[in-house]
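In the current project phase, the collection of sequences with tokenised folds has grown. One resulting record follows, to show the layout:
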Amino acid sequence: MRQLLAALLAGAFLAAPTDSHAQSTSEYPTRPIRMVVAFAPGGATDTLARLLTGVLSQELGQMIYVENIAGASGYIGWRNVAGSAPDGYSLLLAENAIAIRPGFKDLTPPFDPVSQLDAIASVAYSPLALCVASTVPANNVKELLALSKSQSKQLNYASAGTSSVATLVWDVVRDGADIDALDVPYRGGGPAMAAIIANQVDIIMASTQVAKPLVEDKRIKALAVTSKERSPVAPNVPTIAESGYPGFDAVAWHGIMAPAGTPAAIVQRLNTEIVKALKDPETAGLIEQQAMQIVGSSPEAFAGFIKQDIAIWKDVARQAKIEMK
């Protein structure tokens, strides 16, 4: 399990851009572009999308707007983009769920991100944070475990979807630490976090960028982060590895994709502008303030990483005893 989770940071994800497919793109874009987020507003993906669209709108000379199409743990939004014209005017800000969800048996019709979408560029990755509601009397993983075993009221977990990376990582933590908690499903990270803030549920596995300001305002508590090392934006929060589970390492990633068959010249133009934007000090600073580490890979490297991630999470889900195809 440790090796599988550690492979999320494989070198393919960190490869540099290439000009091998560069072509003339002088006429693109000529009208607004939509960036689909396959989850409800308020989550980490939505926050990053709104930051990126502002910068890329300036780079491309056309407005890029965010459209939230939530449902089925991302499936509805992915299919919407995959079924759109492959002309560069419908993009998807994808994240781990797109490498996880397609492996489940309940998708009808099936969805394959490798054949139905084209990879454009990886953007960034970040650790997750194991958090609890402010009223939960636990300040570390050991105390949470003890609490789950001792109290008469069963603890519950705010799930953003059974196949989301947060929930799968939670499944691994829950099983490894033997924490007794019931999953409560929500339609995305935003609604799940709202429930934690309102003390309607006890536990959540959230992105560090969403959790950070809420922890600082003492609206929730962070018990641990899932990366190998402590997050620079939350240096006082221990890692899962430090909490008694050596070697634990899992992160959430984001990248931009388009419908399969998008012209190579458009893919390369978008990749060039995305990587350029990520190298801009101001943009980089804003993303890093969201507790994310910038990547910016070539389309080929990002496509290879997605294939690898699909295989990794199938094995993780299998070991967590979650039914896959």
Summary: Strands lie at 33-37, 64-68, 90-95, 117-133, 155-159, 181-185, 203-207, 220-225, 251-259, 293-294.
